[in-house]
Amino acid sequence: MKMMVKSFTKPDEVRPFAGHGHADLLKMGDRMVQCGEFEPGWRWSQDVKPIAGTESCQASHLGYVLEGRMRIHMDDGSDFDIGPGSVVAIPPGHDAEVLGDKKCVFLDFGEIAEYAKPH
Length: 119
Known about the structure:
Blueprint: E1 13-16, E2 21-28, E3 31-38, H1 44-47, H2 49-52, E4 61-67, E5 69-74, E6 79-82, E7 87-90, E8 94-99, E9 104-108
Antiparallel strand pairs: 1-2, 2-3, 3-9, 4-7, 4-9, 5-6, 5-8
């Protein structure tokens, strides 16, 4: 890969969620980097499931929370909360929702090339 510098002020792609935010994506060589803005009221099963067409999120996320809070609901029944400063690895098979009345901003370096992309 060659040296690259890009900014989320000019994303390569924007993927809107059904009603509560969007994901800005930058193509960095053969990888994608995402900055997701998840508005209050956002929930994967309501805002992305209709786009993805799967029962739960099948993306693998490796990310950092810049602001806001989110609860992750794993298919195995476990839950965990993330917030500003959290570095997380989330395997496929989960739902998620924004907590509180502030948006959650999440930088994602995981396997997100297909995230919130219509199938």
